Amino acid sequence: MNQFRFSRRPDIGDKVRVSFEFFPPKTDEMEARLWDTVTRLEPLKPRFVSVTYGAGGSTRERTARTVKRILHETTLTPAAHMTCVDAARHQVDAVIQEFAGMGVTRFVALRGDPAAGVGTAYRPHPDGYANGAELVGALKSAGDFDISVSAYPEKHPESPDFATDIDMLKRKVDNGATRAITQFFFDNDLYERYVERARRAGIYIPIVPGILPVHNFTQVANFSSRCGALLPAWLAERFEGLENDPQTHALVASAVAAEQVHDLVERGVGDFHFYTMNRADLVFAVCHMIGIRSHEAEAAGSAAA
Ligand code: FAD
């Protein structure tokens, strides 16, 4: 496949549900941008919004603060990401209790990247949870939570083959995972093949595609090579020459993401998780194009008609 099949489907907003992912801000300026983004995306009524957790728990406090603010100042349902990196079981269990005490009912459970960096060997903490599946088990025994886990349509770089990768996903499901959210990808055929593999292995939870609108093609290209996601030649061609033209870059990016989502809808997918990068515009535009509108926008539209 060199690009997505695309047809106009103005009615699909009824069938599609979305969730959004944010990362906890480091500075006051980033904090302001995050809350502008949250405010703009809130009327689209996502099923939940998730907040990432830095390697080795480095953002524990900032993740907790962001989740708390979402709980107290918005109508949104937050999901807290958690990892096992560099933490003993009792420390991870304490973080689970901290989130649960705030009223968090949704988690995204991850092993996390090796403390020494992507590409190095992962060494579990001697008293820690060894992987995502063990963390799911810990969450499940701590409460009746909604637990999302990761999935990798192109397999995780540490998995020697797809069978090992799918086996890890199966262990997470057996321990109580409610849904899987995928690493971003740009070739829908790879996603579809992965879902077929999972179903053949007896995995029946939703496998929700993670959609990354390309805010900055150069950054995405660098990141893709580290996390093992294929960057198709046709995608590079679309962004070629736009390095210093942010407006055209954004227009192309929203069209590419909308095409990808439309094509997945045609293949029967109904749930999408957007990696927002704490920016609203592209995600808002893509949601608009797939028929997900704020009530305010719909009211304004019918008043004008
Ligand atoms: P696991 O599911 O436990 O394992 C990943 C894969 O590695 C498995 O498929 C398995 O086959 C293979 N594997 C694991 N151990 C071994 C082994 N010993 N030998 C052979 N193969 C092995 N990272 C963060 O730091 N914070 C976040 O908030 C965060 N959010 C994420 C959200 C999503 C939706 C996704 C897809 C990823 C996220 N990540 C995050 C990145 C993630 O932490 C990394 O990809 C990490 O390397 C793996 O974590 P995991 O939970 O997928 O690991």
Description of the molecule:
This protein has helices at residues 28-41, 60-73, 89-102, 132-142, 162-174, 188-200, 217-227, 233-239, 246-266, 281-289, 295-304; strands at 17-22, 49-51, 78-82, 106-109, 146-151, 179-184, 207-211, 271-275. Helix 9 (246-266) packs across helix 10. It is of the alpha/beta class. The termini are far apart. It has an eight-stranded parallel β-barrel with strand order 1-2-3-4-5-6-7-8, surrounded by five helices. It has a single domain (12-304), classed as TIM Barrel. Flavin-adenine dinucleotide (FAD) binds next to helix 5 and strand 6.
What's a concise summary of this model?
By secondary structure, this protein is α/β, with parallel strands linked by helices. It has a single domain (12-304), classed as TIM Barrel.
Mean pLDDT: 92
Instruction: Look at the structure and give the CATH class.
Output: Alpha Beta
CATH architecture: Alpha-Beta Barrel
Which strand order does the major sheet show?
A: 1-2-3-4-5-6-7-8
Number of continuous helical runs: 11
* N- to C-terminal distance: 40 Å
The ligands bound in this entry are: flavin-adenine dinucleotide
Shape: globular
Helical percentage: 40-55%
Low-confidence stretches: none
How is the CATH topology named?
TIM Barrel
> Strand percentage, roughly?
5-15%
How many discrete structural domains? 1
Care to count the β-strands? 8
Element-level helix/strand string: EHEHEHEHEHEHEHHHEHH
Global Rg: 19 Å
Biggest β-sheet: count, sense, barrel? 8 strands, parallel, barrel
The secondary-structure class comes to alpha/beta
